[in-house]
Amino acid sequence: MITFGRPEPDMRRAFPIPPWIQQYGWPFIGWGILLILMAACASTHLTPIGAGGQAFRLQDDERRLWARAQEEQERLDKSGLLYVDPDLESYVNEIARRLLPPGVPSQDLSIKVRILQNPLLNAFAMPNGTIYLHTGLLARMENEAQLAALLGHEITHATHRHSAKHFRDVQNKAAALSVLRMTTAGVGNVFGGLGGLAGDFVNLLGTVGAVASIYGYSRDLEREADLEGFRRLINVGYDPTEASKLFGHLQRKLDEEKDTKEPFFFGTHPRLQERIDTYTELLRTQYPREAAARGRLRNAEPFLARTQRLLLDNAVLDLRIGRFNTAKVTIEKFLQQAPSNPRALYLLGEVLRQQATSEHTAQAVQAYKSAMTSDPEFADPYKGLGLLYYKQNQREWALPLFERYLTLAPEASERGYIDAYVRELKAGGSR
Amino acid sequence: MASPWWLVMVLVCLTGCAAPWTQVGGRLAAPSLNVEADLPQGWMQFNRANSEQARQLVMGELVGWTVADAAPDSPLFITRDGALLQYINFQRLKVGKDLEHTKKKFAQGLLPQEVAEVELDEVRSDPKVTNFELVENVPMQIDGRPGFKLVYTYRTKAGLELKRSHYGLLLGEWVYRMQYQAPAQYYFERDLETFERVRTSVRFNAKA
């Protein structure tokens, strides 16, 4: 029989319990554990960067978090996932700059906003001040005030050192758990437990901060980010009612689209509801005057103009992952601003064609034809409509469309397929 | 107390040490895939009997590798020097089945061009794939049947650039995949000819 927890008589001979433990017994060990716990607990109280004019100095664990963030950033920068639109990037960064609290020296924290090509709802701040916004989140916003609300929230994560706080919090809990494990594992496991503890801490460094920034912090830290971000939003002059509108809007979109489960912080119902609740409460209790004030900044037009191209690029990403509804909604949002844009009409045709129902097919034909009318030199709609007719065995309609496509796009990557269809159709074949 | 304990440990170790790979070569008949092909001498086949162990041992973060434990669409997976240096993978997926990264599905009646598009979307939507570049997308006859050929490169999260040659076709209710993947530098070209020999030797059974 094998027993755990209590050393066998042979083990007692191999690892004799010291006389002082035999004399003072478990109370002494209890005090020892408490001392270890206290020593292991790092303070989660960290002053915000720039607060009270104090000089900012990175602490050791924080420095490692920043270094890890830097590595992650370098990987992201080289990944080909950054969305390249210099105008949009400088616009977004300008808004972030305005939202940064005045007391934060730029040498201490440099806020940079980057956009990632990703259709999922997400934004996160690295501890060193680099903020990543997903195209999917930007595509669902309606104006600059909403963007500012989100940026204010993320900037606060960086200025208030939430990564380091969160890391220490997890570290402290891990220490407590480990000590608890030591107490239950018996004398023989103490050294093994300490070794494991050190290993766990090493593993935690660099990972916890990054994970937290993507998946969200504790409820208290998120609330602090809401609070401070909101204050900055109001100080800069934006309409504060847009903050809760943004998250309410995201919630409704999640309900309407239901295409794919959103895995990130800003794509989960409870987290969005927390934001809405906090902002509603703030408006009611602390900022009723600002909530009622007219003429505060929303800036819908400049925002929509700057994000117009992004809408279609994000719709392509949604189409790629098979979120037909989401892609369609985004394209329709674009078409409200530019109803005869040939690329948008073509993409709408693609979304409808790929859904492959008779109702969608009829609408796809219409969208392709509108795209051709808008720009007769744009090749892609000819391919889309040609494919549609080819699959319906409407040979006499498909052939001229394919030929036109090949004339307009002689270097097209899918030329081989279209060439083959043309040969087949000319030879009198049908599917 | 000691004897039975150590005996159990030895037996556990012996079971765990069984090789996950076996040598291949010659004509392969894979009834579960309805396909036959000539396999290269000296390459090793993934041994499904130890799938869990082999998966941990060699799969790592390879993209596109889905270990299908259900017999009908289990893949044939062979390599000469290890899966990170090259592999050839035969796989088939049932029409309508969920894919891993895109919600699009294969459907009967899709053109080879459309099947290729779904395959590309599946690869491009994989969050582990970065720096994706399509090199080639052309129609291709496979055992006299209309299919497609894709060639693309991408990088893993660790930064390794991989190149993949990917043939496929829709036959009845199945989409067949034949893929060869190796690091883009040096290794891809080295074993490409071997893969092409295997690929051109593929024959689908009449009922496929």
Question: Could you characterize what this model shows?
Answer:
- The complex is a heterodimer of chains A (431) and B (208).
- Chain A is mainly alpha-helical and 431 residues long.
- Chain A contains 21 helices and three strands.
- Chain A starts with 8 loop residues before the first helix and ends in a 5-residue tail after the last helix.
- With 208 residues, chain B is an alpha+beta fold.
- Chain B has four helices and eleven strands, in the order αββββαββαββββαβ.
- The A-B interface holds A 1-2, 75, 78-81, 259-260, 320-323, 354, 356, 387, 390-391, 413-414, 416-417, 420 and B 1, 5, 101-105, 107, 109, 111-114, 121, 124-125, 130-132, 134, 137-139, 148, 155, 157, 159.
Write the layout of secondary structure elements.
The complex is a heterodimer of chains A (431) and B (208).
Chain A: H1 9-14, H2 19-40, H3 60-78, H4 86-99, E1 112-116, E2 123-125, E3 130-134, H5 135-139, H6 144-159, H7 162-185, H8 190-204, H9 208-215, H10 219-236, H11 241-257, H12 269-285, H13 288-292, H14 300-306, H15 308-320, H16 324-337, H17 342-355, H18 358-374, H19 380-391, H20 395-408, H21 415-426
Parallel strand pairs in A: 1-3
Antiparallel strand pairs in A: 2-3
Helix pairs in contact in A: 2-7, 4-6, 6-10, 6-11, 7-8, 7-9, 10-12, 11-12, 15-16, 15-17, 16-17, 17-18, 17-19, 18-19, 19-20, 20-21
Chain B: H1 2-16, E1 21-23, E2 26-30, E3 35-39, E4 44-46, H2 51-59, E5 76-79, E6 87-94, H3 112-124, E7 130-142, E8 145-155, E9 161-171, E10 174-183, H4 187-200, E11 203-204
Antiparallel strand pairs in B: 1-4, 2-3, 3-11, 4-5, 5-6, 6-10, 7-8, 8-9, 9-10
Gyration radius of chain B (Cα, Å) is: 18 Å
Strand content of chain B: 35-45%
Strand content of chain A: under 5%
* Principal-axis shape of chain B: globular
Structural class of chain A comes to: mainly alpha
Order of helices and strands of chain B: HEEEEHEEHEEEEHE
Which two chains share the most extensive interface?
Answer: A-B, 23 and 27 residues
Strand order of the largest sheet of chain B: 1-4-5-6-10-9-8-7
Low-confidence stretches of chain B: 13-18, 49-73
Quaternary organisation? heterodimer
What topology, given as strand order, has the largest sheet of chain A? 1-3-2
Order of SSEs of chain A, N→C? HHHHEEEHHHHHHHHHHHHHHHHH
